[in-house]
């Protein structure tokens, strides 16, 4: 079974102070650390599990700058066989749709039974690359997948729906699935595997190898800003009676009672 996994190198911002850069269209990244996008890590692990079960190859693909190759090598160390980087520096204003178009131009030349992608990227939260890519490739897809059971040419998948509901789909292959976090437990790359991956070749594709007819539309960020603070939390201290009295005064001030 040949599997393609689309991954992205993203800044780790959960515990970092985020500031807007001078352009007003991006964030300051000099002091941020980077890693593989969280749900992409689960997508890669799911591909490795299927490879261990059925055999075949895993190819990881990323649209990124040269430092993205570090992320691709970690993917190689975790079980991928081949890696492709599409040079982001060759393109301007890459949004989710344009990323899908670029990936389509690369993937349509590859052999695959399954394509995996993370369900959402933690940096831009577009959550559209995987499903858009499937539409461009004209193959079936399922999003927010939390369980996969595959046979030779079909896959039974369970996916999350709104309000705690679950969905079950029987899908013919080839197909694309966007993977939800928690579907498995991603493994760590061993030191030996990392050293081996450092010696592997990463295929680099530039703009001249992309079908420019596919790059028809894209959006451009006009402004990036941190939402203004509109509400504050006030913690009431003291005994229950004192807190209740303060809360009643606040309700009166706000015109609620």
Q: Total number of helical segments? A: 6
**Which topology does CATH recognise?**
Rossmann fold
The biggest beta sheet reads: 9 strands, mixed
Q: Report the oligomer.
A: single chain
Overall pLDDT, averaged?
Answer: 91
CATH class: Alpha Beta
The helix/strand class is alpha/beta
Evaluate the radius of gyration: 22 Å
What's the architecture, going by CATH? Answer: 3-Layer(aba) Sandwich
- Give the strand order of the largest sheet, numbering strands 1, 2, ... along the chain: 9-8-7-10-6-1-4-5-11
Q: Note the overall shape.
A: globular
Helix and strand run: EEEHEHEHEHEEEEHEH
Task: Report how far apart the termini are.
Answer: 66 Å
Describe the structure in your own words:
The chain is α/β, with parallel strands linked by helices and 257 residues long. The mean pLDDT is 91. β4, α2 and β5 form a beta-alpha-beta unit. The chain is globular, with a radius of gyration of 22 Å. The chain has a single domain (3-214), classed as Rossmann fold (3-Layer(aba) Sandwich). The chain is 27% helix and 23% strand. The protein has helices at residues 38-54, 68-77, 96-107, 129-137, 191-197, 240-253; strands at residues 3-6, 9-11, 34-36, 58-64, 82-87, 114-118, 141-150, 154-160, 166-172, 175-179, 203-205. The strands form 2 sheets. A 9-stranded mixed β-sheet has the order 9-8-7-10-6-1-4-5-11, with helices on both faces. The chain has a two-stranded antiparallel ribbon with strand order 2-3. It has 6 helices and 11 strands.
């Amino acid at each position: 079974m040949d599997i393609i996994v689309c991954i992205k190198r993203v800044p780790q911002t959960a515990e970092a102070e985020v500031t807007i850069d001078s352009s007003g269209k991006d964030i300051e990244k000099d002091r941020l650390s980077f890693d593989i996008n969280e749900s992409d890590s689960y997508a890669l692990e799911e591909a490795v599990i299927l490879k261990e079960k059925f055999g075949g190859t895993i190819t990881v693909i990323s649209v990124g700058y040269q430092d993205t190759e570090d992320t691709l090598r970690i993917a190689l160390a975790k079980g991928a066989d081949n890696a492709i980087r599409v040079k982001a520096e060759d393109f301007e204003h890459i949004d989710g749709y344009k990323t899908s178009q670029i990936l389509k131009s690369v993937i349509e030349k590859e052999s695959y039974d399954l394509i995996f992608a993370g369900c959402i990227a933690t940096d831009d939260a577009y959550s559209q690359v995987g499903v858009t890519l499937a539409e461009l490739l004209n193959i079936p897809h399922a999003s927010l997948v939390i369980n996969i059971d595959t046979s030779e040419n079909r896959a039974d998948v369970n996916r999350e729906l709104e309000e705690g509901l679950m969905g079950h789909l029987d899908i013919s292959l080839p197909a694309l699935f966007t993977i939800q976090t928690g579907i498995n437990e991603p493994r760590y790359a061993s030191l030996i595997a990392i050293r081996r991956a450092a010696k592997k070749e990463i295929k680099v594709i530039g703009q001249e190898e992309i079908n420019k007819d596919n790059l028809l539309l894209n959006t451009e960020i006009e402004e990036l800003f941190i939402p203004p603070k509109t509400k504050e939390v006030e913690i009431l201290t003291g005994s229950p009676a004192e807190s209740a009295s303060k809360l009643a005064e606040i309700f009166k001030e706000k015109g609620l009672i």
